[in-house]
Amino acid sequence: MAKRGKWGSKIGFIFAAAGSAVGLGNIWRFPYKVADGGGALFVLIYLASILLIAMPVLLAELSLGRATGRNPVGAFEAIRPKSGWKGVGFLGVLTGVMIFSFYSVVAGWTVGYFFKAITGKLTGISSEAAVNLFTSFTSDQLMQVALTGVFIALTAWVVSRGVSGGIETVAKILMPALFALLLLLVARSVTLPNASQGLKFYLDPDFSKLNIKVVIDAMGQAFFSLSLGMGTMITYGSYIGKKENLPSSAGWVAFFDTFIAILAGFIIFPAIFSVSGMAPAEAGAGLVFKVLPVIFAQIPGGPIFGALFFLLLCIAALTSTISLLEVPVSYFLDERGWSRKKSTILVSVITLLVAIPSALSDTFLEYWGFIWGDLSLGIGAFFIAVFVGYIWKTGNALKEIKEGTGEKTFRFAKFWIISMKYISPIIIFLIFVGFILSKFDLW
Ligand code: PHE
Questions:
Q1: CA neighbor of 327 nearest in space, from 377, 265, 263, 367
Q2: What DSSP element (H or E) covers 92?
Q3: What is each CA distance from 417 to 47, 57, 88, 239, 397, in whole angstroms?
Q4: Does position 4 have pLDDT exceeding 80, yes or no?
Q5: Is the per-residue pLDDT at 214 higher than 70?
Q6: Is the separation of the CB atoms in 313 and 174 below 8 Å?
Q7: Cβ contacts of 247 within 8 Å, gap of 6 or more
Q8: Residue 94: how many other CB atoms lie within 10 Å
Q9: Is the CB of 221 under 6 A from ligand 1?
Q10: Which end of the chain has fewer CB atoms at under 10 Å, N or C?
């Protein structure tokens, strides 16, 4: 077998994993899911899911990856050979391709909007014009497929060269720039007239909106945003050295990811209520693209900031698509002995074909996003928790987790064990049962 890659340092790993986690999920998906899910109530359930379930699962995936040094399929196989458990790995590989497909369509939108911004198409735009622009842009079918293809090709180019070199360096410089730009936009957005209505929607939970769809969406979003439930973090964990401190790395990744999602909400919601009078839930997957150009149109230097913003968003998306493609590629590499190049090309071509319906229809894209980006990740996370809790056993996992922490022990070990064995599997299971019952009108 070819020698497997390794991250250069703890910081290198944190950047790569944060690069995977921070992406369109934070800036595009989180706000529209919040809008759909009735605002603050969704945010609360999302935060609870991050703390109680997603962070423990993150640590489980990283330790599984580092202990076995394999891709998701190989990792289950290494611990419980010749069992059905590798099916969970296969589901992860499949989910990687499916998420990569619709994600690339939206990433293509960021490329399109970058060009719109530099060619002045967004300058001084009104909210009505912004909505029309998005509609006409996404109805240009040839353009949609082409932009999706460009983005998949870009990802394939990076992955075929191995992940550690260029992209990590690029991410280290550009992610802080994205962060600075987000802060600037927050400052503008919360001082817009009527911003308080948006803040209320975002921060004041209305418990009467509670239903099982909101819960499953919020939990799914927690997995999606931290790149969990499909083995991305197993794969990235497999490149971590034994000397690194897993709990602290995982904590930083979760912190950056959550913070950036929350910031995105502080930009979008005040802006929706202030400038557009748009009902948040109506905007759907186009939300960010319909609202942000209008705020850019109202800041001095708006066109420049707009172009920069969409460029940085492309880069944030790219560090995520790389991790999505890396999962199936690492599978073909480890398990089938294929070359990196061959695996990359094959998976990318299949992804482009799968992406076509999402590129042609927003409705399909949202539906596909729910099936793979919420349900499948939830199922994956459930099985990962059960596997670590009962098959590999938390004691073995803890040995791996504590490796590299030096003298210090892992402070949250007790909570982590309880989450793996009880909280995560039981809550995910109950939420799924509730969801299925509600589909059949039984609940
Ligand atoms: N976490 C990424 C984002 O928020 C998306 C992603 C999901 C990446 C699953 C890898 C695996 O944009």
A1: 377
A2: helix 86-118
A3: 20, 11, 21, 24, 10
A4: no
A5: yes
A6: no
A7: 59, 401, 405, 410, 411, 412
A8: 15
A9: no
A10: N
Write the CA distances from 425 to 99, 131, 380, 382, integer angstroms. 23, 41, 11, 5
Distances (CA, A) of 207 to 45, 212, 213, 228, 437: 11, 12, 14, 28, 21
Q: Is the CB of 274 under 6 A from ligand 1?
A: no
pTM to 2 decimal places? 0.94
Tens digit of pLDDT for each residue in 402-413? 998 876 678 899
Dist. CA 267–CA 276, nearest whole Å = 13
Q: Which of 323, 351, 372 to mutate to test the pocket of ligand 1 (most atoms within 8 A of CB)?
A: 323
Q: Which of 381, 323, 319, 328 is nearest to 350 (CA)?
A: 328
CB neighbours of 115 closer than 8 A, spacing ≥ 6?
A: none
CB 320 within 8 A of CB 163: no
- Distance set, CA 407 to CA 11, 252, 411, 415 (Å): 20, 20, 12, 20
DSSP 8: S
The CB of 322 under 6 Å from ligand 1? The reply is no
For the residues 110-139, what does the mean pLDDT come to? 94
Atom 9 of ligand 1, residue of closest alpha carbon: 227
Residue found under tokens 């349900």: 375
104 touches ligand 1 (CB under 6 Å): no
Sequence-distant (≥ 6) Cβ neighbours of residue 190 within 8 angstroms: 199, 266, 270
Token duo for residue 348: 């990318």
Q: CA 391 → CA 56, 79, 85, 127, 387, distances in Å? A: 16, 8, 10, 54, 5
Between the alpha carbon of residue 302 and those of residues 211, 315, 345, the distances in Å are 39, 20, 39
Alpha helices in 119-191 (DSSP H): 127-139, 141-160, 166-190
Structure confidence at residue 312 (pLDDT): 87
- State the DSSP code for 240: S
| Six-digit token string for 302 | 């708006």
20 in contact with ligand 1, CB cutoff 6 A = yes
How far the first Cα of the chain sits from its last, in Å, is 52
Nearest residue (CA) to ligand 1, atom 10: 227
Distance CA(145)–CA(147), nearest Å, equals 6
AA identity, residue 235: T
Does residue 64 carry a pLDDT above 50? yes
Backbone Cα Rg of the chain: 21
CA-to-CA distance for 428 and 250, rounded, in angstroms?
21
Measured in degrees and rounded to the nearest 5, phi and psi for residue 433 equal: -60, -45
